[in-house]
Amino acid sequence: MNFMSANHLYGKHGDGLQHISTSCFAIDNLLDGGFPLGHVSQVAGESASGKTQLCFQLCINVQIPSSFGGMGANSIYVDTENTFISSRLLEMAESTVENLRKRATEVKGLPTPDTFLSTIYLFRCQEAVQLLSVAHQLFDFIKQHPTVKLIVVDSIAHCLRSEEDSKTRLRFLHNLAEIFRKLSRDFHLAVVIINQVSTKLSASFHGTSSVIPALGAIWSNVPSVKLMLTKQNGRRLAIVYKSLTHPRRVVDYDITKDGFRDAASGRSTSMIFSQATANDLLCNDFTQNSQTFKVRRSPEKSTEFEEKTKNKRTRSTESNHSDLSQSHPGDEGCCVEVDFFHEMPPSHHPESRDDGQSSPSSPILLSGSARKKRRFT
Amino acid sequence: MSIFCTSLRVKNIGRELFPGPGFLQDGDVVEIIGEQSTGKSTILQDLMITCLLPEDHDGCMSGVIYFDLDYHFDLLRVVAIIEQRTQGTENDIQNWLKNFHLIRCADMEQLVISLHAIEPLIANSKIPVGMIILDSISALHWVDSNAGNNSQYLKEAKLRKIVQVLQALKERYKLCILASTQQLLKKDCRQNRDDEEEVVPYKPFLCRQWLEFVKHRFVVTKDDHEEVTTRKILCLSSKMDTKQFVIDEKGFHLVKA
Amino acid sequence: MPIQLLAGMCPALTSEILMQLTSKGIKQVIDFVSMDPEKITALCGLPFKKVLSIRRVLLAQYSAFPVNGLDLYNEALSTLAVLSTSCSNLDEILDCGVYTGEVTEFVGVSVSGKTQLCQSLTIQVVGELEQNVVYIDTTGGWSVKRAADITRTRFPQKQVSSVLSRIQLCQCYDIKELQECLEQLQKSLHNQPDCFYSSLKLVVVDSVSAVLGSSFVSGTYVEGCSLLQSIGRRLNALAKDFAIAVIITNDMVSAASTTSTEFYSMKPALGRCWTFVPSVRVVLEPDKEPCQLWECKYADKSCSLFEPTIKAIVDKSVRSPRQSTLLKITNAGVANGT
What we know:
The complex is a heterotrimer of chains A (377), B (257) and C (338). Chain A contains 13 helices and 15 strands.
């Protein structure tokens, strides 16, 4: 085993690790820039709280090129609930590309929304045993694809809850916990796990119930960073209750057409900084090393920005069919999926793989064209 | 080659705790069983201190050999209790400690061999050895049980050898054997719910030879209810009533009813 | 593994004698030593003097050496240290702090401050007492930035890199890695390859349940307990043999309650056999559920800027009675709660 001096680690990472931004500055600030590499994080919340939206945002943000202060890395999306919708991802990618375009000095070399989608490696599974199998295979997969810096699992609770035998469930939980921790350590990447919620009955007689992340006490000690997405009085609130470096805080967030964002100004009351520092801190740096890319989000400009993108979106939805039919054959805005029963390296060209011939019992392997057909019929 | 000692060396030890004459006698084997933090080691150490102290402090001035099998023994705590009890000088305490020997064993095998190896120490000791303490005899139970064999008989082989050598030492040198046992198995309380009697939290798991070897068997319990700690000791080998006891800086004391 | 009798273990144990012994079923050291020498002589037809001399050598070589009380006392006086936790409330319930030579366990539910407490104690030992620490991280909760922040807040005049250089970190995410790590640590403490190990005063394992929790799901109950007992012994031996304080953290799991009044109670993880391992146990209980919104004094009711107050209860101690106190986690680490 390797013993490392903490001093050496301090020198290596300086005052911070690398992080993947959530595009919500309020949350990023509490996590020193976003979800950290080298750690397992958890996002829990009730349904429709925005967990999947956050995952999509992370998958896009990790790919922002280093010339814009991003990581320029790829991501793996493990989907257990069939929540992966490429159209939504495309929408969010388009908005991100717009952002980059506005701030870029040159238009050449900018990534397109399709490039953003084509480097998300998608794994699908329904049962716990399939999830475990995928997790095991990720070691070799990432060795072959060393640019992967993010693994998203949406969600872990779904397949484990269907496991009735508690001993098997425990075994799966322990194995998965060990694998995810090792993946994050050995390959220095961020593992973000989505969890559902369950109700905990209070011990007192006048039983009040409260909502806590699912999978019980054993799983609760696994992630190092934990968020709970909740709603109150029409506000979307993110409780960052376990963080590596910050105390517990509650912040507002929002889900717009562009993706996962900060709440509109005037509603984030959880800032405790003085006004002067708040303006400085409103620079949305994606990593600490960014020098060329800064988005200044002052209140008046954000509404203007939203206006512009709203117009753009209405235009794009009208011309959806025609746009797609004009897309390139090899680059259809689809995500690369991997069939985990055959260890095939993913390819960016959907035609080269089996096209929708899978039987119901085998894991779902869809080409981009097959999925698109599903979307429009 | 055997040495017989006829004097009652360990008189005064454990007043009122033991049935019959009320105190420990030469050649007695005592086992104290309990869950974690119930006071087993503290009671053993209290009895040990009485054995080490000279006669003018109500002791026996005899030697003690202590097998610290769970690595929890803290000599400074023992010295603190001696100081509270006797107000003895540093010199006195150091003299008394000369009759104390501590042995730490890595596994059951080393324990068996070490028990055989201490015979010259006992035989040649200037001051006769009054007791051998094993704290705790169950500290190696799981490791020993897992050491390969599936047969229950073979699993218990080392413990049987321990009983054998302790038996020989006890008979030859008339010393007491004291041991603490961790309650490693949970007593199933559901069966006794209908009974009015209090459920004794004891489930034997050591081998039959050990169970028969022990003369006095005590179970200690602790109950933390609303910040008040109640400690009880009950004797399984006789019809002695359950007694309450306390642990303070002077050691272990039975609470007078 | 039982030690087998081999020729050459001692001068008198020749291969011929060994063959005679093994032919009668005496194959291991323990068998030879447990049998009466007269019986061996009669059984194997060996000279009595030879049997005695073999026995003497084997006993001397494979038994544990008894330490005299006086020597032990002098050694204990010179090596015992109490490591203050920098939080007066915690020091008070622990009777001045964390003691060397024993294993102290901090148990709590998720987000009760266990890792923060470990990091805070580590910085206290390296910064204030200027002794070395080995931090074994099994959860990924160690954060260099947090350690640096605590150092800067508590010791602004000291250089962060020099303080952190006293910490050696090891990340072990399964049982095998943990065992290797502990073995390596033991070897280093024994051989002292560099001066780091001569001033090593604290070893932190955060947390034991992350790696040992799976020992019951794979394998039998006996195997699981055996593993826990052996690792527990190893930690205790480390503490006792090298006069080090060992701090471990453990999780809480739900307990099947037999009484009808409490149907949701928690107990330390790793079961009954682990409860005998630590000498001191402190339970940490946050006063509010961290993943929920709390009532807030401000007009905006759903906003909460407060950290939970943590109640620390001494559940097991050789020195202190059962008592509790309040703690809080701040920028400077663990502090008194109100």
